[in-house]
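Submission sheet (multi-component)
Chains listed below:
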Amino acid sequence: MTTPTTTTATTTATAPAGAASPQTPPASAPLIRLCDYAPPAFLVDRVDLEIDFAEQGAIVSATLALRRNPQSSDTSAPLLLDGAELETLSLALDGVELPPARHRLTADSLTITDLPDACTLTTRVRIQPDSNTHLSGLYRSADGYFTQCEAQGFRRITWFPDRPDVMARFTVTLHAERERLPVLLANGNPVGSGDEAPAMPGGAARHWARWQDPFPKPSYLFAVVAARLDVLRDEFLTASGRRVQLAIYVEPGKLDQCGHAMAALKQAMRWDEQRFGLECDLDHYMIVAVGDFNMGAMENKGLNIFNTKYVLARPDLATDHDYEGIDRVVAHEYFHNWTGNRVTCRDWFQLSLKEGLTVFRDQEFGADVHQPSVARIREVRTLRAAQFPEDAGPMRHPVRPSAYVEINNFYTATVYEKGAEVVRMIHTLLGEDAFRAGMDLYFARHDGQAVTCEDFVSAMADASNVDLAQFMRWYERAGTPRLVARGQHDPVTQRYTLTLTQLPPAPVAGEAESSTAAAADAPTPLHIPVTLGLLGADGADLPLRLAGEDAGASAPTTRTLSLTATTQKFVFEGITATPAPSLLRNFSAPVRLDLPASDDELALRMAHDSDAFNRWEAGQQLASRLILGAAARLSALPANADESVAAREVAANEWPESFANAAARILDAVIDGTSADPAFAAEALALPSEATLAEEMTVVDPDALFAARMGLRRFLGTRLSERLHTLYDALAPSGSYLPTSADAGRRALRHLCLDLIAAADAEAGCALAARQFAAADNMSDQYAALVLLAHHGGAAAEQALADFHARWRHEALALDKWLLAQATSRRPDTLAVVRRLLAHADFDLRNPNKVYALLRGFGANHVRFHAADGAGYRFLAEQTLALDAINPQVAARLARCFDRWRRFDAGRQAQARAALERLAAHAGLSRDVAEIVSRALG
Ligand code: TRP
Ligand code: ZN
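Outcome: structure written.
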């Protein structure tokens, strides 16, 4: 799962300590290319691993049963093993010490020549998990030792062909002190445990445990845990009647925060049986929560390891958003057991094979257990705020990248979210039944294999008889395509002709015309599913009959067209008056739509489109148009020394009353009960984010954008004041907190009302927020109030922040919220506050969740990060550098805040460039950060 947007942590005293290891200089980092893929010379059938948690580091002994790969073309090729930061103690082949002449050992490789076709290699290494601050491989966190092996962490544990096309059966034995590390876990089934003698006479009592995984797996799915943890147990009876033992392990004392994750797990297990006929294949399914974790969670076979953020929840500690995140991530990792683990990736270029498909599956799960249209709206919001900018910037890459320097940099919105859109388009083109047949065929063909994106698409095509050869281009093409739509109505023939044209993505600023852009000059067309409807003057759907179709048959009102040429015309018959087209219903393809529509037409669709997504979309378009127009006018005003652009105001009379009226109708429908969907209303009234709007500007003026967006909120708050107060009161909590989607929807709308009230009348809004903060019996209400207060500042904000900190100072996840609320505050002094918080005892650069909250939170604070004086840029570059010495993966994610720097004015560009160049010039930069920075500057 992608990185958490907010965040858990250990205290300074318990977090992993120690110096960072020497890093590969960027100059020597090679580009890895998909076209260079070659099968491994050797396969590993079995691995016997012993890990001894000793006084000085951990001793890892590995015995590999090796066999020459019949698929490899070179029958005398040496064995190549990967390693990183391993202290090699001994090497033996078939029980005999390996002579120096037979092997070559470097810092990151072990090459062994002249091997027989089958042999056994035994290696012994020492590693230092206590000083592993990268959180990749085996590392220490507050409660013990944990692993993270995807993508290439297993090589930090032992010598191994650390690539996903080598799948082995693992037996793992762990040895540790019983008191200090009472819980010893690995993948698969427990097959033995017991006491053992102390390391030294009179030393601490020790124990051991052995685990066996019956399924062959790639090394990236390996996991062990040796820690002091509490456990919540449960059981799941599969459809075929097998019992699966479930367990969730957490920091001691936190069992009361595991119930929701357990319920989500069981719900996901049932759902996968019902929707995809996929059962759990294990006797034991364990989830372990850890406070120091680079990403959201990891699908290790039978032993998922999770960021605490996606496990722990209690009404007073977790927001509705957190609860939903837990549902989605628990399901995501569980779904990987089939899409990722049983069928895995041949190489890391195929990452979206498992991630895009699994995100699609967790999205479908979310849609089934919550409201589908609201779920879809949120997915598209994320896609537009994160993936569209990525796809138009220096890190743009196809869903299946063709080259990388550091694979960890490619766990991106494109691979995950756009990858899910690609799978969703296949689903749209095939329909549910054929899609399911395609999934069944995919598993029938490839269970137990490491495969490619072609294998997935072939199974879908073969099971459905739909030709997906052209569709395959979605995996290879970077950038967001543009879809131009023009309609023409002929009253005489009563025909409506819709002309659809696909255009390549707009060229990227600063990108050399010759390289990647060249391919975009005359690209072959994509296969784009365009789901559409046509609205009559009253807003009702018209029957859609294409020219040539049987006039007698009843025509559908929504249908999906396949656009496969650059330009295609679609003629609809029996259309008496000019209709309003509703295109890309449910967002049927990840493209930018260019369809001229008057404000009135958008208002009609906003009120009446039978497709909920497009009702929302029409409102967003109208809002974007207004905000961008106002921002352009503010930008064009002459500079004024006394007044910053961000503080400028848009006069209320510049906003059209029709927009307020449309918003009023949405609120009225909730007030009078005609719409039972407050969650939809909240989405419909939430304006597009600055990051999304900025993509539409030729030169981004963040101050004008901020002022314009605030201006529209103030206008809505003023015009709708009475309704907002009515709803704020009517939606007040009635019973005790439940994280159901119905209740969460009511809270979301209530919080939106409060925001708009405060936008128009800060005093009244803050008074309500302070009351809400004090009265809240749940984190959703409390946190919403805290964020609002932090935006406005003043005594009430200081008080709320102090109260919040005092109450939650022992809850790491709540402290992350406390940091995030301050980092994302729109107040002009936010950078100074963030700098001060860096030195706070509750901040820790070694904890990713803290970094995501405070530093990436600030980087996402559009108007403050992009301050004209460049202070935001200097700050984030400085922090990226400091963090790079500790955790390169997380540092590289932080560096991504710079992605869009070329879209701003010359002054800001100069500041950002200087900050990036200073970073790039730093010797010893990690490969991770070097790749991001060089792409940004390139
Ligand atoms: N496979 C994980 C997921 O999507 C992602 C992941 C977890 C990851 N931890 C990681 C990727 C560390 C790279 C590095 O569920
Ligand atoms: Zn995943």
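Remark: The radius of gyration is 28 Å.
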